[in-house]
Each structure stands twice: as structure tokens, then as C-alpha cells.
Amino acid sequence: MPFVAATRAIGRAGLFTLSVLRATRPTADFFQELVREIYKIGARTLPIVTVGGAFVGLSVTLLGYRALDTYGAANQVSAMLGLGMYRELGPVLTALLFIGRAGSSIAAELGLMRATDQITALGLMAIDPIGKAVAPRFWAALICMPLLTGFFCSLAITAGYFEAVHVIGIDQGFFWQVLRDSVDFGDDFLMAFAKSAVFGATAALVAAHVGFHAEPTIEGTSVATTQAVVNASLLVLMFNFVMSALLFR
Predict the structure, then answer these.
(1) Any stretches that span the bilayer, and where are they (predicted)?
(2) Contact 102, 47 (CB under 8 A)
């Protein structure tokens, strides 16, 4: 039955999350792996996030200006840009880009380790495969996602500023004044980073779970990669709605 299958899947995912937390050991080897994963899934995702943030900022500024200009409130475009970036678009779009670039990579790497018996070999050498292969990726995602979201929002607002001030003709001082008055540091800025941390943990756990339990074949690795992207993206969108409803009133 679908309900029973869904309940079992949630239970297995919960147990897998607990096993990742239990397997985390702050040793020198762990921190070495953590730094390597931060570079692989964080630094290598930065160019995509940078370009994506700039174009999203340009699009939101243009659409916001056209909508607000109808009501004679074009000068409020920076408020729409700032609130839209920090409350919704920044964390969500960064998470989706992160899943496409890093989440798929995590699932593919773990699936390939399963297919080539590297995970079995770690167990035979008395090395916890979750602590060795999964925990560093999980914590790297948890650290990188808020930073990537910060880059995304900064590039979006910077791009929006150049379009609003130098193309549309909005006064520079008014642009920053409205933005500063609209965006609250605690309610908007910090909550955006809290949401992005949840999204990063979700993306890493989903990708690691399906990759770690993939069929030990090349086809199984391919299926796990697809499942990681689809499932993590849907969960991020669902969690975003729930968190927005609870945090922003």
C-alpha cells in the first residue's frame, strides 16, 4: 500500500539520518575529508550560483519595476527585490542549483562506490562507511548552503541595483534607503540562512541516502542520481512552503 510504503521510506530515512549523526567523529581524518568536500560541493557550485543570482536579480528587478510602475510605486522595486531574495527566491533557487550540481554528484559518487564494492571494502576493513563517505558530505553541505545563499542574494541585489539605477533611472540613495527599511536583519536575513541550512541538510541526506542504497550497477547509479535530484527538489519546495508559513507572518 502506498501509505505503508511511504511510512517505511520515512522511517528508513530517519534511521539513516541518525546513523550519519552518530557516525560523525571530530578527528583529523574527518576534518581533512570535510575540507575536501567543501571544495568539491561548495567552491565548485559557486560559479553556477553567481551567474544564476545575477540573472534572477535582473529578471526580478525588471518584472518588479513593470508591475509597480503601473501603480506609481516604481521606487519600491528594491523592497520587492530584497524581500523576494531573502524570504523566498534566494534560499530556494540556491538549493535547486545546489541539488543539480552537488546533490547529483553526491548520489553518483556513493552509487559508484556501491557498484565497485568500495563501501563493502570499507566495512571489511572495520571502517564505518557512513562515517567515512557520508558524514563529511553532509556537514559540508550544511556549511556551504548558507554561504552560497549569501552569494546568490548579494549578486542578485547587486545586479538589480545596476539595472534599477543605471538602466531604469531610479535614484541611487532611494534604492538603498527603501531596501534597508524593508529588509529586517533578524526576520529576513537570518531566517534566509536558517532556511538554506535546512535545505542543504535535506539535499545532502536525500542524495546520500539514495546513493548509498543504490543497486550495485551502473544503471542503479543512474537511477539513484535521478531520484536524488527529483526527491530533494520536491522536499525543498515543500519545506520552503512550511517554513515560510511558520516564519514569515
Answers:
(1) 46-68, 138-162, 189-208, 228-248
(2) no
Locus of grid cell 536524488? 228
pLDDT tens readout for residues 179-204? 888 888 777 888 888 899 999 999 99
Q: What is the pTM of this model?
A: 0.90
